[in-house]
């Protein structure tokens, strides 16, 4: 009996935690927007919080709320967010960092390096660039937070363009061989769409971009393959070459997905000390269109198309490689290959000066796996 009375009194007198905060009051930031202020003065920080409206048992309608902070630096804007009625904001659940192209041009790593040591902050989430004003994008209220985050996730999952985390972007500044291609999004009638990639060299934007076709080619050159990607286009007469006077027309539409493949970087020395770089890309394709009705394609035609596709992809690859060299951005990791496997060649190079002068030749070997089905 005495024990029962003591237990009862303990329950009555327990007060709980004095410093607790109800979960519903925590402002868990889903997405962070970063932009420059008017006339490129100061920064604008956008904290996007998603809450459930009309929440019930296991369901609810998500609703995004954006709170804007302006200050001379991102660090001061973050500090400012601690003292507003809509706070405090917790960044342990941030799923996306959205950076305007203007912000990206002004040494973003310098502004964001403090995040590496900031408590209650997740830095493994992806960073993407928005072509235009992030501030205006949020003010128009046309952005569905969940849809945007899912879109970025699928870019990585489908191997269209690999995500780059905030941590990787920050750490790349100290690595002379860590060049990156960050997804570049732009406005569309339905929200946002992929516009290509913005190229970064040691944490700073080069100002050069890859268009969406070059982004897909970058995936092929990097050896990143996924059957969910569908490649479509048209073979020009120059791609068809000597076969243009035979069975093939002067312009051939095509469509394929990559079943499997691999890319090998071959490095051979030259007498002048500069190496020749050859990218050997072997692709096994499932084609779903090759310029003719599927029932009428013959084996000889498929063989000609394999050669034509190889030449076509080589021409498109050269355009992508030239763009990378003009940006002095080694996203393909050729420098790492030379340093690791050809140390004598590496010692003779001044990499940042010599990279843009290298001869880099892509060679495609295309094999169509399903000629009997197309």
Automatic annotation (TrEMBL):
Domain called Spore germination GerAC-like C-terminal: residue spans: 196-370
GO cellular-component term (any): membrane
UniProt keyword terms in alphabetical order: Germination, Lipoprotein, Membrane, Palmitate, Signal
Origin: domain of life: Bacteria
GO BP: any one term: spore germination
Membrane topology: Lipid-anchor
Cellular localisation: Membrane
Domain Spore germination protein N-terminal: 19-185
Leader sequence segment: none
Family: Belongs to the GerABKC lipoprotein family.
PANTHER family recorded: SPORE GERMINATION PROTEIN B3
Protein name: Ger(X)C family spore germination C-terminal domain-containing protein
Organism: Paenibacillus aurantius
């Amino acid at each position: 009996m005495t024990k029962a009375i003591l237990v009862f009194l303990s329950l009555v007198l327990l007060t709980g935690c004095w410093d607790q905060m109800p979960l519903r009051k925590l402002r868990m930031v889903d997405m962070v927007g970063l932009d420059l202020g008017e006339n490129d003065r100061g920064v604008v920080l956008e904290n996007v919080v998603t809450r459930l409206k009309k929440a019930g048992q296991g369901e609810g309608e998500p609703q995004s709320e954006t709170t804007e902070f302006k200050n001379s630096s991102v660090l001061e804007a973050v500090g400012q967010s601690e003292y507003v009625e809509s706070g405090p904001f917790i960044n342990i659940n941030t799923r996306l960092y959205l950076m305007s192209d203007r912000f990206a041009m002004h040494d973003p790593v310098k502004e964001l390096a403090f995040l590496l040591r900031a408590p209650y902050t997740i830095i493994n989430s992806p960073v993407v660039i928005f072509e235009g004003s992030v501030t205006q994008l949020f003010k128009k209220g046309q952005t569905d937070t969940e849809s945007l985050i899912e879109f970025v996730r699928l870019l990585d999952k489908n191997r269209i363009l690999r995500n780059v985390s905030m941590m990787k972007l920050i750490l790349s500044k100290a690595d002379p061989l860590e060049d990156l291609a960050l997804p570049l999004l732009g406005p569309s009638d339905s929200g946002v769409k992929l516009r290509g990639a913005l190229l970064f060299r040691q944490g700073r934007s080069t100002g050069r971009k890859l268009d969406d076709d070059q982004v897909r080619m970058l995936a092929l050159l990097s050896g990143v393959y996924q059957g969910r990607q569908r490649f479509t286009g048209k073979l020009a007469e120059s791609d068809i070459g000597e076969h243009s006077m035979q069975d093939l027309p002067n312009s051939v539409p095509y469509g394929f997905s990559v079943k499997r493949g691999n890319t090998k970087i071959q490095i051979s020395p030259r007498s002048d000390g500069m190496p020749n770089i050859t990218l050997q890309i072997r692709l096994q394709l499932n084609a779903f269109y090759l310029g003719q009705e599927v029932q009428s394609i013959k084996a000889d035609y498929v063989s000609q198309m394999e050669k034509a596709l190889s030449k076509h992809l080589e021409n498109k690859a050269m355009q992508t490689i030239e763009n990378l060299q003009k940006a002095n951005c080694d996203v393909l990791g050729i420098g790492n290959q030379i340093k690791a496997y050809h140390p004598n060649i590496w010692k003779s190079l001044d990499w940042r000066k010599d990279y843009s002068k290298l001869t880099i030749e892509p060679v495609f070997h295309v094999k169509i796996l399903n000629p009997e089905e197309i």
